[in-house]
Amino acid sequence: MVCASCGYNNLNDNAPFCGGCGRPLNPGASESSHQVSSSDKVRSEPRASRKLTIWIGGIASVLVLAIAGGGTLTLYRHHENVTRARTLRSAIGGSTAPASSSTNLSSTNSVSTNSSSTNGSSTNFPSGGVSSTGAASSGALSTTGTAPSQTANLVSLAMGGNVDKVSSEAGMSGFAANYLLDDLSPDKGSDWAGYGWAAEPQFPQEIVLSFFGHQPALIASVQITPVDGPGLFPEERAKDVEIWTSNESADAGFSQVARKTLAKDGGEETISFAPVQVRYVKIRVLSNYGSEQVAIIGKVRITEANGNGYVPLLQRNSDLSALAGGAPMEAVFKAGPPTSQVTKTSPDLAKQCEPTMAAAPASQNASRNVLVLEEGDNQIFDQSFNNFDEIRPWFDKGGKELVWKEPRWATPARLLNAEGFDTVVLSELCDIKTSVSEEFKRALVAWVMQGHKLIIRDSDGCVPGPDYSFLPYRFETNNVACGCEGHNLRFVEESSLGNSRPKDPSFLNLDRFAQSPNELGDSNVIVDWDSNWCGHMITTNANGVTGFVEAYAHLGRGLVIYDGFDHDNYGKEDYQRMFIQELEQPFDPDGLSCSSRIGHFIVTTDLKLQNQPASAGKTYTYPLTLLSNQSYKGDLKMSAASVPPDPSLSFHFDTENISLTGTSKTRLAIATTTRTPAIPRALEVRATDANGESNALCLQWTEVAAQPTAQSIKEELDKTGRAILYINFDFNKATIRRDGKPIINQVLKLLKDNPDLKLAINGYTDNVGNQSYNLRLSQERAAAVVAALVAAGISKSRLSSDGFGSGQPIADNSTEKGRAKNRRVELVKM
Predict the structure, then answer these.
(1) Minimal CA–CA distance to 710: which of 758, 755, 749?
(2) Residue 591 predicted with pLDDT over 80
(3) Three-class SS of residue 405?
(4) What Rg do the C-alpha atoms of the chain give, in angstroms?
(5) The CA-based dihedral angle spanning residues 610, 615, 616, 617, taken in that order and rounded to the nearest 10 degrees
(6) CB atoms within 10 A of CB 657
(7) Residue 220 has what pLDDT?
(8) CA–CA distance, 696 with 602 (Å, rounded to integer)
(9) Among 155, 168, 290, 324, which is 20 to 30 Å from 473 by CA?
(10) Domains, the chain
């Protein structure tokens, strides 16, 4: 029956409520039988290394309220009148998982809740408190505070139900434990896909189910109906079945509550037991009716029982109740006040460059609980491959869970706080337009804006690229799909997402990655975009087209990361490290400055120059590289400006007009004066073509410090007993740079003007890199200052030197500005 309210095609003509919107079905609505399209592609079996395949059919968006009765678990017979061209026997194929192997389908760690009505223990309630009227709910779930219906299926996808564990599965297309959940519809193009679970007849076989957020629920009975249909042999139906329950985990704490022999004719049956409040329900299949091929059962339903003092699951979770009642996604996933002040995301390129502001304290340092949605053949980091060795460093850093699911498992309920996810990975979903429900995609955008992370991992098999039109920012990708090597990979922006500093925790060795055997030429690059996308890494694919292969966007309080690298690189250390750093990238706030937005052409400079302190009365030189994106060709005019405007600065380009066809270079000199204010600022280096299109490099000056003088140093020593100096040294060396020598000359003048003054010279570093290395470097730099003063005629008896590494910071080492302040030399009166 077609729902008059939302147009959803309900397969059960007798259902009182729509499976799409939850509203009462209109008896006058026209009926429509379910059609199976022969043009839809039948899913292939997954690769052999996968322990378990979860081929999931389509998702019904909300509750199916079809069977009443207090506390029931129902396995449905399928009443579809579709002509089947092949028998069940012909659907059997592929490898089988051994019955002795135990396969986890999702995380078994319990997620804590704020409910005060449960304490995690098994609680028995009087059997008289269990409803046995069989009446269905009279309306949709309310979001106005009234008691929600208890006829909702607790293990449906829309309610956040899970299949946590299964002992084994037969390798039959479309038969998997997840198909026990009643709102998974069959795969189109397959007669049997999505109707139930099948396993080898090696008993016992076990299936563990749980409820939303692994929360406890009061249940009192189980209903079971095997799959029914042409080609099914009655002896393949499950026979003896036990029900066990636990409050501990999917692996422990189970006790038996019921047992029953199911009828061979496949009729619907109910297994009742004393009401019990539990987190996990185990179905143990002990036998079938004699088949040596498979044992099969159909759909699963669990509804709540009534009990004095028991608070129903929906009543405990108002957000889940609101979803079930059809509340707008944006109302359920309400974003709090913005916490990130790192950057503004305006599509107006003319206003893209602003001074970097101090980020608010991070409320989320990294991804810790991750939901990975992927197709069966497109795994990048396989949950069964080498025991997670590829991402073991992420677990070592504090990562807790990566939960692999197929896309149609995802419903908005998965994004609610009780589920505990902070990150979603869309992994190579070529058919994301149809394989992920529109409801989930709408919820995902609202959820990210709350302050979560979304990682999009593209695929070399997606030609044309996946449909990302559900995102607020325009974004399309494409790929040559040739399996080709490439040798051109570079950073456009250096950040905590990845940089070229070997001692930095976010270091990525792009040279090693690009020169080793790889498939960079097969990368999915961004071919269409809006200005909210920020470029991080760029490559040239096998067609000779240069494009962004990694980018990000700030979305509300959240972060979206795009990764277009070919998954065939997954065996490379640098590729694995890159994915781990995507998981480790902080968010809410993320601290990423978006110094280079994606455009048809990009302006870059040496990465170490993009964020630095500056001093008054000095000139700073920036070598500039202009890159063509997507084979752009055109004439560009260079310009530069300070944000906020500052007439005391002057700008000069070696070449101001550039004809760009691939890569071009020029150089910019920025001169300060003694009148330049000591404030943080952005320096916008912009290229504009003849059509008015422009893009800019955003440089940051964390401060403009006045050049110290002998007098200012003496005043500071007299006032506090110490003076802080910022003397520039060569990178990772104790060699004083030419622009650091004027400060040495002022210290020399101070000592000559004050012959009785004795100074201790102490060196300090930031916290990047090894502690012992930093200690040695700070000692060597302090000794270098002493050596320079002694060489200029100061008695060594008036000087001492020491180094303290990163041990005494004066600023926050989590920001570049803070690290710059900590890399200092201090003069102390002796």
Answers:
(1) 749
(2) yes
(3) strand
(4) 32
(5) -90
(6) 10
(7) 92
(8) 7
(9) 324
(10) 97-324 (2.60.120.260), 353-584 (3.40.50.880), 601-705 (2.60.40.3170), 710-829 (3.30.1330.60)
Six-digit token string for 237: 């139906």
Secondary structure class of 386 (helix, strand, coil): helix
Give the integer Cα–Cα distance in Å for 593 and 615: 22
SS3 299: coil
Residue from 169, 33, 36, 207 nearest 93 by CA: 169
425: left (phi over 0), alpha (psi -120 to 50) or beta: beta
> Could you write out the DSSP letters of every residue in 428-484?
S-TTHHHHS-HHHHHHHHHHHHHH-EEEEE--TT-SS----TTSSS-EEEE---S--
Give Dmax over CA atoms of the chain in angstroms: 107
Torsion of CA 695, 698, 699, 705, to 10 degrees: 130
Which of 16-25, 202-211, 573-582 is predicted with the least confidence, judged by mean pLDDT?
A: 16-25
- Sign for the CA dihedral angle at 732, 737, 742, 744 comes to positive
Specify the residue for token string 């440089």: 699
pLDDT at 480: 67
Beta strands in 481-584 (DSSP E): 489-491, 525-529, 534-540, 546-555, 558-563
Residues 6 or more apart whose CB falls under 8 angstroms from that of 392 comprise none
Mean pLDDT throughout 779-796? 94
3-state secondary structure of 217: strand
pLDDT of residue 381: 52
The burial class, CB within 10 Å (0-12 / 13-18 / 19+), for 461 is middle
* Amino acid making up residue 823: R
- 781 falls in which pLDDT band (50, 70, 90)? very high
Instruction: Extract the tokens encoding 382.
Output: 């396989």
Q: Which DSSP string do the residues of 496-521 spell out, in sequence order?
A: TTBBS-TTSTTB--HHHHHHSS--GG
User: Coil, helix or strand for 278?
Assistant: strand
In the numeric block, the tokens 């990210």 are attached to 448
Pairing relationship of beta strands 103-104 and 162-166 according to DSSP bridges: antiparallel
- Do 349 and 599 form a contact (C-beta atoms < 8 A)? yes
Exposed (0-12), middle (13-18) or buried (19+): which is 560, by Cβ within 10 Å? buried
> Residue 384 burial (CB < 10 Å; 0-12/13-18/19+)?
middle
Cα dihedral 531, 537, 541, 543, rounded to 10, equals 40
Closest CA to 381 of 571, 194, 217: 571
pTM above 0.90, yes or no: no
CA distance 344 to 342: 7
**Spatial distance between the Cα atoms of 195 and 78, rounded to a whole number of angstroms:** 7
Cα separation, 301 vs 76, whole angstroms = 8
Q: What pLDDT, on a 0 to 100 scale, did the predictor assign at position 352?
A: 63
* Residues paired with residue 627 on neighbouring β-strands, in sequence order: 602, 663
- Could you tell me the two tokens for 273? 């037991």
How many Cβ atoms sit within 10 Å of the Cβ of residue 116? 8
The pLDDT score that the predictor gives to residue 18 is: 40
d(CA 249, CA 357): 45
Asked whether 621 and 651 are in contact (CB, 8 A), the reply is no
CA distance 308 to 688: 72
Query: For residues 59 and 105, what is the distance between their CA atoms, to the nearest angstrom?
Result: 18
Phi-psi region of 579 (alpha: psi -120 to 50; beta: other; left: phi over 0): alpha
Closest CA to 549 of 483, 481, 629: 629
Three-state SS string over 159-213 comes to: HCCEEEEECCCCCECCECHHHHECCECCCCCCCCCCCEEEECCCCCEEEEEECHH
Instruction: Output phi, psi for 819, to 5 deg.
Output: -65, -35
Q: Which tokens go with 797?
A: 């008896």
Closest CA to 545 of 513, 520, 579, 572: 520
Residue pair 277/218 in contact by the 8 Å Cβ criterion: yes
